[in-house]
Write a structure and sequence with these properties.
Mean pLDDT: 82
Strand order of the largest sheet: 10-9-13-12-11-8-14
Low-confidence stretches: 1-81
Shape: globular
Bound molecules: zinc ion
Order of helices and strands: HHEEEHEEEHHEHHEEEEEEE
Structural class: alpha+beta
Largest sheet: 7 strands, antiparallel
CATH topology of the largest domain: Aminopeptidase
Helix content: 25-40%
Radius of gyration: 21 Å
CATH superfamily of the largest domain: Zn-dependent exopeptidases
CATH architecture of the largest domain: 3-Layer(aba) Sandwich
Distance between the termini: 9 Å
Length: 369
């Protein structure tokens, strides 16, 4: 677990303790949580589905408990690499309930077992995430989509038409609020399209503000995206996003997350459905993340800028040989992860200031925000 995620998971608890103390003293505040509490996590028996199978009719009444797939059973049912979909195969979507049963994470992810996420009052993030996922599932199934509800443990090489990791935020600042979305560091065109589609639907559906600029390294480096490091991760070609739906520590956000969960679920489902409608299922290239070599700065050094433009703000001047790990490319610039001393900077570097190497790319340690 990174320092950042430590802070994230502990901070809401500290804040909560403080709030409770204050409430007790002045008897002025209503004790959290809000009246509508998410359904408790379900631990039903696994009902693995195989590719191409038609989904059983899902619950239509909203937050009815749904079976959560046991990782062990689905692991053997799905191939580690994408397989061609026979004509007529319904689209398959994985809804991952962030932090759900994180204590069951496999040995390779043991350091994230204690990563239980945010919390408000007695409501854990996993409970909120599950309550929302349970509402998204029937909305997708009503449109013919096969849905896997996945716990924190992702089946090895999980292969689907879309993977959405559902999370909520917490902060020591009660003013922190809003939602945000991220793709993996190295983003396929499909992941980007999925993110844009959900972003376009989620804001209007929920009325929640976007936490612009709030996307963290921990989101882009989400452990379940890290197919290079872990077996229990999505397949390289599975379009994937992580959504932080809002802050459990914000009263304004809770009014929607807890009070109007149907709007939250509608926002996610509409975005995913729009993506599935608009994509070209035959465009295999759109599924492939870029595979750039690790770069080093040329003798004159490399300038890291805030945007892919020569007049953009300078974030860092990297000296000769500085290690630069690109994850995107635009207009003769690489968007890259640059490490200089203790600083970790993401910015844009001109292509002609870099030399390719045959080193293995190193990204920040995967996290579970
Ligand atoms: Zn989380």
């Amino acid at each position: 677990m990174s320092k950042q995620s430590d802070r994230r998971s502990v901070a809401p608890l500290l804040l909560l303790a403080l709030t409770l103390l204050l409430s007790a003293c002045v008897a002025a505040r209503a004790a959290p949580p809000a009246p509508v509490t998410p359904a408790p996590p379900t631990m039903s028996a696994a009902t693995p589905t195989v590719r191409g199978a038609v989904a059983p009719p899902g619950p239509t009444g909203g937050a009815a408990p749904t079976a959560v797939l046991a990782p062990a059973t689905i692991a053997t049912a799905l191939p580690a690499t994408p397989t061609p979909r026979p004509p007529g195969t319904p689209p398959r979507v994985g809804l991952q309930v962030g932090h759900l049963r994180s204590d069951e994470l496999p040995e390779e992810l043991a350091r994230l077992r204690a990563s239980t996420g945010a919390r408000w009052g007695s409501v854990t993030e996993a409970e909120l995430n599950l309550a929302i996922a349970n509402r998204v599932k029937p909305l997708l199934e009503a449109q013919g989509v096969v849905v896997d509800l996945l716990p924190a443990t992702v089946p090895p090489g999980y292969d689907a038409d879309a993977f959405i990791a559902i999370h909520a935020d917490g902060s020591i600042s009660p003013a922190a609020r809003g939602w945000k979305l991220a793709t993996p560091w190295r983003t396929s065109a499909a992941s980007r399209a999925l993110m844009n589609a959900v972003a376009a639907a989620y804001g209007p559906a929920t009325g929640l503000p976007q936490d612009s600029g709030g996307v963290t390294f921990n989101m882009k480096g989400y452990y379940a995206f890290s197919y290079r490091r872990y077996q229990h991760a999505i397949a390289r070609t599975t379009p994937a996003i992580i959504i932080e739906m809002g802050f459990m520590t914000s009263a304004a956000d809770r009014a929607v997350l807890f009070g109007q969960p149907e709007r939250v679920a509608r926002g996610i489902a509409d975005g995913v459905l729009a993506y599935l409608r608009e994509r070209d299922p035959d465009d295999g290239a759109a599924l492939l993340p870029p595979d750039y070599p690790v770069m080093r700065a040329v003798a004159a050094g490399a300038v890291v800028r805030a945007a892919p433009r020569d007049d953009a703000r300078i974030l860092l001047r990297a000296g000769e040989g500085a290690r630069i790990v690109p994850f995107d490319k635009l207009d003769g610039y690489y968007q890259a992860f640059v490490r200089a001393g203790d600083a970790r900077v993401v910015g844009w570097v001109r292509e002609d200031e870099l030399i390719a190497t045959d080193e293995q790319p190193v990204f920040p340690t995967p996290a579970n925000p």
